[in-house]
Known about the structure:
Layout lengths: L14 H10 L4 H12 L2 H10 L2 H14 L10 H14 L5 H6 L9 H6 L2 H4 L13 H13 L6 H12 L12 H6 L9 H4 L4 H14 L9 H7 L8 H4 L4 H6 L1 H4 L6 H18 L4 H15 L2 H9 L3 H19 L6 H6 L7 H5 L3 H6 L1 H6 L5 H11 L11 H7 L8 H6 L5 H7 L7 H15 L8 H7 L8 H4 L4 H11 L8 H11 L13 H7 L8 H5 L3 H4 L4 H6 L2 H7 L2 H5 L3 H6 L2 H6 L2 H11 L4 H5 L8 E5 L2 E5 L31
Antiparallel strand pairs: 1-2
Amino acid sequence: MVTLSVNNLFMPQIQPVLWDLIQQDDNSSALRVLLQEYLQMPRDSIRTLVMSAEKDAVKRFISHMHQSWDQLQVETSQQQAMETMTAAFIHKFPRVTPELFVDLSQFIPFMSVSDIMSFPASLIVNDSVALSSPKLTATALSGRLTAIRDHSSEMKLPQKKAFVKRLLQSQAVGDVPTWPPYFLSSILPLLPYLPVSHFQQLTPQQVTLSVSSCLQGSSLAEPQISGPVLDILGPLLPFLDRDSLALVDREALALRMEDMRSFCFPKEALRDISNIQKDISVKQTVLNKDIVEQILVGQKRWKDSEVGRVCVVQCVDEHQYRQQTQSLIQWIVKARNLPTPSCADIRGTFPSAWTSTQLSRMSEKELRECVEVFGQDSSLSSVQRRALWIRLRQLFNPGRELRTDQVLALGSLVTEMGDRELQDSGLTDMTVLAHLGTLTDWNPRKMRAVVLNVMRKRRLKVEQLTDVDLATFGHLICGLYPSEMKRLNSYNLSVAVMFLREMSLPCTEQQMEALTSCLSRPEAFGPVSAWGPEIFTEIGTLAAGLPDIVLSALLQEQVEGITPEAIAMMSPKKMAVVFSAVQLSWLSVEQAWAVTQEQWAELDSEQRHALTLARYEGDVLLEHRGVCVWGKHNFYYRSIFISYGDTCFCRGINTNSFFLLFYREKPGSRTATHR
């Protein structure tokens, strides 16, 4: 009789007995015993045994494990041993075949990121046939992608991101809008982990299909939308209609609130989710001061993140957002029941939670400790900022110029300094000016006071301002009169525009026209009629200042170079006057969706029709199903009803279309070919 042990498991003379024993025992009991013995070995021994065994024996062992995986039991404490075993199997076979990958699929949750990245891209998707090719069928993809999908709920975030990265490196994947339905269905659990630049390229139809597939495949077979389904939906969750949201498991949703902070919500969906949150809080009686403070801190962290900044600018009703935030903050203030806040109270809430009277009553010690916190709160009102500045200026050595570190700490509070204070201050340091130029709370008079102070102290005329000066001014450049702007050195402005191109300058139309008139001189970019699309892209938002007659005469390739941000900055009447229906039809999808609600309202029916066609890339059938109207929209897909409220401008929706809450990346700046 031959004695079996893990030490001789893969010996040639033992293998026939082993396979016979495993197969007689219905592939499970004997294998379970052997696996448990295997996992008890030291990690180095596991690695040595696998690497020294015959490849055919290891392949057969892996295959038996794959067939019997549902009957095998792996304890949580054996996680590291499983990871070692998995790494050993992968290293044993440097060239993993599609068949072997499927047999290894039960080990996917134990694979390291480096091992996943070592797989050839063609392993997941065959590089020899493009996804859009009729030769590539759902069957051809099913094995490998289904293996990843089936084990996605057990995978960690880095593993999912690694598979996505490897998938996107395959030449067969192609452009996101060309991905066929069966491919989207196969990678559904990975969709939330696509890079934002790829996710935002998904077409409305693709997003619709993904949501619908998830619901039809999962929730319609259950009384509730469970946690695993929520994990699969990821950032697609906001696209559920109200009836579907009612089926969401409240406890599962509560556990995923932290992840949801990174999502971007339509206004109506945000209200529905907020109501669910309130229900959860009331039922669990967890709405206490500490929890609310954590929510507010997390919300601020999200607002400052890349996705948060996009959502706030593009997709959030700022008034409603501020009301909701203030409601939570006031709840905390009442809970504390303190007439005068301490710095700890301020940090635990936000400065804007407190009235100007309460802020002005703070002690000098508490004020000093919280200067930077005050300066970073962009939601402070002018009255609150003024109350704080009146107190703080008494602490900063009255009569002396503010130090650089003091100005930087004050943040937006500097905008409440008086005209004389601004002119007498030492706000001429380039670091300080660069900071002041990013602030958005200036009024025209104070911007001018800062600019005049700089020129006076440095004894400069407008014509002598360098490209560095102009770039450093930022928003403060609007402190110059139009007549002064026309005297700027055109070449210097053309260089500085690289730093001004993404700013929403608070200039008047006359000031913007003065700036663009400088840019159209020979020493800058030359006459606008000779500009290529790259120059329109390079000057960014300043293109909104081109005169009406100039914009009306633009050719198609020139219009294509205008950035979406520049389009959004044009006044509604200006857009309606300068762009004909033909010119609006030239807009790209990104440009067309940059048109604001106010601009849309000024367009005539022919212009709106042209703009709608541009938004849907000329899809006449889609456009004819319902002209885009700002307001309440409904969307029907088979038996599922999805409803949305007011749309925002990342992508809008109309009847029978979908609202994708992600914006595409801004066109990259390209250097002009001539000066």
